[in-house]
């Protein structure tokens, strides 16, 4: 197995893409820290699915925008597993609104979790990774961070910021054997896309050359690749996983 | 004093691959011992482990010579 004996932290792993990433890492042999901030029950469900692959799961509550929480999470992870080899920064929220209607707190909350959170976890995990001279950091951005999207100024800015942060951390940490990459999912089948009216779904699919929405597993498999030794020569990149929507 | 200096010197020699004779109190990590910024960050991390102490980012920024490192550590012991 590609990730046998590795330890991974997945932030925001209680549901959606984060859960899928946690499960896929586990299938490839990694022990997984299932981080959540709100839904403990869902996080425990993820942990059960992780353990079904015969690896260990550790559920940790931490608000990624809080430096003390993040430090404590890293400490607990290393105490339990002895190392941190893979960090997947997936935790994210949306607070959509038109620019002209967007409240300052809507901007700040999204920036705090989606962008500052990546900074804090990267900083905390880079320390043990630097000592190990090895590590993989994978940031979950979004295709809208590349193309822009009306009604999501805060979210788009945060996800574009994640791409810039990915490139900078890749440059700073390369000399220490740490690879930092991002994935930029397009439209992925989740509870959110399920709720869209059929004609809206159809018009969205027209923008996608592969003519379908993605599945969370499509993202998770790319993350496993980037976390593995197969991707040792890849750093600072953003992989679009969007059915060809943005080229 | 001597004991702290010895332990600090050993870490610097290991980490930066310099000769022990170059590790003088007034030696600057970057200018005299060939360290880059990231080397200094790592050096501080190793000092934290060696002496079992936490060095804040603010304090770490002030540690730029061997002597600074030694006197900082002694002040916290």
From TrEMBL, chain A:
Q: Which reaction does it catalyse?
A: a (3R)-hydroxyacyl-[ACP] + NADP(+) = a 3-oxoacyl-[ACP] + NADPH + H(+)
State what this protein does.
Answer: Catalyzes the NADPH-dependent reduction of beta-ketoacyl-ACP substrates to beta-hydroxyacyl-ACP products, the first reductive step in the elongation cycle of fatty acid biosynthesis.
**What gene makes this protein?**
fabG
Subunit text: Homotetramer.
Q: Which residues form the active site?
A: 155 (proton acceptor)
Q: Which UniProt keywords apply?
A: Fatty acid biosynthesis, Fatty acid metabolism, Lipid biosynthesis, Lipid metabolism, NADP, Oxidoreductase
Q: Give every Ketoreductase domain span.
A: 6-186
EC number(s) on file: 1.1.1.100
| Name the UniProt record assigns to this protein | 3-oxoacyl-[acyl-carrier-protein] reductase
Biological pathway:
Lipid metabolism; fatty acid biosynthesis
Q: Which organism is it from?
A: Jeotgalibacillus salarius
- Record flagged with keyword Flavoprotein: no
Q: Sorted alphabetically, which Pfam families does this protein's record hold? A: adh_short_C2 (PF13561)
Q: Mind listing the GO biological process terms from this record? A: fatty acid biosynthetic process
Q: Name one GO molecular function term.
A: NAD binding
TrEMBL record, chain B:
The record's GO molecular-function terms, alphabetically, read: acyl binding; acyl carrier activity
Q: Positions modified as O-(pantetheine 4'-phosphoryl)serine?
A: 37
| Subcellular locations according to the entry | Cytoplasm
Q: In which pathway does it act?
A: Lipid metabolism; fatty acid biosynthesis
Record flagged with keyword Lipid metabolism: yes
Pfam families in the cross-refs: PP-binding
PROSITE patterns recorded = CARRIER, PHOSPHOPANTETHEINE
Q: Which GO terms describe its cellular component?
A: cytosol; membrane
Post-translational modification note: 4'-phosphopantetheine is transferred from CoA to a specific serine of apo-ACP by AcpS. This modification is essential for activity because fatty acids are bound in thioester linkage to the sulfhydryl of the prosthetic group.
Its chief place of residence is cytoplasm
The answer to whether the entry has keyword Lipid metabolism is yes
Domain called Carrier: residue spans: 2-77
For this UniProt record, the keywords arranged alphabetically read as follows: Cytoplasm, Fatty acid biosynthesis, Fatty acid metabolism, Lipid biosynthesis, Lipid metabolism, Phosphopantetheine, Phosphoprotein
* GO biological-process terms attached to the record: lipid A biosynthetic process
InterPro entries assigned: ACP, ACP-like_sf, PP-bd_ACP, Ppantetheine_attach_site
State the PANTHER family in the record. ACYL CARRIER PROTEIN (PTHR20863), CARRIER DOMAIN-CONTAINING PROTEIN (PTHR20863:SF76)
Tell me the protein family, please: Belongs to the acyl carrier protein (ACP) family.
Summarizing the function annotation, the protein's role is: Carrier of the growing fatty acid chain in fatty acid biosynthesis.
Recorded hits in HAMAP family, A to Z, give:
Acyl_carrier
Q: What is this protein called?
A: Acyl carrier protein
Q: Which organism is it from?
A: Jeotgalibacillus salarius
